[in-house]
Design a protein that fits this description.
Layout lengths: L1 E5 L15 E5 L10 H9 L4 E4 L6 H11 L2 E2 L3 E5 L2 E6 L10 H14 L8 E6 L6 E3 L2 E3 L4 H6 L5 E3 L9 E3 L7 E3 L5 E6 L4 E5 L4
Length: 206
């Protein structure tokens, strides 16, 4: 299983089609709610199933429109099982309305923890725009402290997050609760071995 991972595109598109089976988009794919159409149209042309979460540039209404227009699945405070993957998502606190986000994150963590009574073997990925705390960026510790509750609620194998723009993909393993990957604006491919729940990051444009 090869996964195309994207975040912080802000209207930009990958220059070439990667060898991938599915696309995961972790927010800020638009520019203040605009310039998102070309990306989702391109992913549809590539016939890649698309799962996405919002960032701080996307409203709930925009995410609903994208789901309806392009057949992409929004995973804001939801989960899904597909092709041997367990995907869960947390929405970004968008620029339009973020008053209730902390309450929603807390409730989502509780629901996710309750799901553990019947876990199924699968490679598990948390998609979130903001990375869980502690994420090191420009010499400072950043990230969402409330997201740690979500990470602890399920044994995720990988966390995908953006928000802090990076020139190339960046993977942290030891300094965070779960391995956390920022795919960068350029994006990257993650190759998953579901049998032993391992993965490798494979940039497809050198």
């Amino acid at each position: 299983m090869r996964i195309l991972c994207l975040a912080d595109n802000h209207g930009l598109c990958p220059e070439s089609r990667p060898d991938a089976d599915i696309a995961l988009v972790c927010g800020d794919f638009s520019d203040f709610g605009l310039r998102y159409e070309e990306l989702f149209r391109l992913l549809a042309e590539w016939r890649l199933p698309v799962y996405f979460t919002s960032g701080n540039h996307e409203s709930p209404d925009l995410c609903a429109d994208i789901a309806g227009d392009y057949g992409a699945v929004c995973l804001d405070y939801a989960w899904a099982r597909t092709s041997g993957l367990f995907l869960a998502g947390v929405g970004g606190h968008d620029l339009f309305d973020h008053v209730e986000r902390e309450i929603r994150v807390e409730d989502f963590a509780r629901r996710l923890y309750g799901l553990q009574v019947r876990p199924e073997p699968a490679f598990s990925i948390l998609m979130t725009h903001e990375p869980p705390w502690p994420w090191k960026y420009e010499g400072r510790v950043r990230g969402g402290e409330r997201l740690r509750d979500v990470v602890r609620a399920w044994p995720f194998d990988l966390v995908l997050a953006g928000h802090f723009h990076a020139e190339s993909s960046r993977l942290l393993r030891e300094s965070v609760i779960r391995p956390t990957l920022n795919p960068s604006v350029a994006g990257c491919v993650v190759e998953v071995n579901a049998a032993n729940r391992s993965f490798a990051v494979v940039p497809w444009h050198e």
